[in-house]
Amino acid sequence: MTPDEQTPFPDGSTTALLERLGTRSIVFVGLMGAGKTAIGRKVSQVLGLRFIDSDHEIESVSRMTIPELFERYGEAEFRALEQRVIGRVLESGPQVLSTGGGAFMNAQTRSAIAAHGVSVWLKADLDLLMERVSKKQNRPLLQNADPRAVLAKLMDERYPVYALADLAVATRDDRKEAIASEVIEALCNHLGVPGSIHVSEVSEDHE
């Protein structure tokens, strides 16, 4: 058996988790810089599910970048498009879905996620988020003279809503395999699947 063919779980654990998940999607929520895409990709690799980034889907549908959509149509119109795209994606589970930072703030989107998914909040502190988002210039909400203050305000506004997610996993400056392992452990506990999963044992070949 080659490394690519080896199961990352003890026998039966993958099957049990996927059976409990059914047609639901694993949906990552949280602020920009929390690692939703990186951790989501790792979890999808381990579980053998496809990975979808809602921002990439929105850009594909609109043929515009997220900053261009914000600039041309404003945040309200962007959120309406985001709601429609996420709702459509959720109809084709199971899969791992990473959502934009503001997506879970929309009540209709939260309802759709609750009906068709298991939501996972990647919770990060302000210093970690600032360190990560400062490396990228494609954050429309942070085009401000004091991005740290903006991010702190977003945390105050959004964290109580993110707390409505099914699961919360603290993220930090650590290997993505470690965070993904904690996410999968939380999913197993939530879905009543016994067993311990060590994501670090999984081959990196498919990233």
UniProtKB/TrEMBL annotation:
Compartments, record wording: Cytoplasm
Q: Which UniProt keywords apply?
A: Amino-acid biosynthesis, Aromatic amino acid biosynthesis, ATP-binding, Cytoplasm, Kinase, Magnesium, Metal-binding, Nucleotide-binding, Transferase
State the reactions this protein catalyses: shikimate + ATP = 3-phosphoshikimate + ADP + H(+)
Which pathway is this protein assigned to?
Answer: Metabolic intermediate biosynthesis; chorismate biosynthesis; chorismate from D-erythrose 4-phosphate and phosphoenolpyruvate: step 5/7
What residues bind ATP, as annotated? 33-38, 139
Q: Which residues bind substrate?
A: 55, 79, 101, 158
Cited InterPro entries: P-loop_NTPase, Shikimate/glucono_kinase, Shikimate_kinase/TSH1, Shikimate_kinase_CS
**EC annotation from Swiss-Prot or TrEMBL:** 2.7.1.71
Main localisation, per the record? cytoplasm
Q: Which Pfam families does the record associate with it?
A: SKI
- Cofactor(s) this protein cannot do without: Mg(2+)
Task: Tell me the protein family, please.
Answer: Belongs to the shikimate kinase family.
What is known about what this protein does? Catalyzes the specific phosphorylation of the 3-hydroxyl group of shikimic acid using ATP as a cosubstrate.
Quaternary state and partners of this protein?
Monomer.
Name the record gives this protein: Shikimate kinase
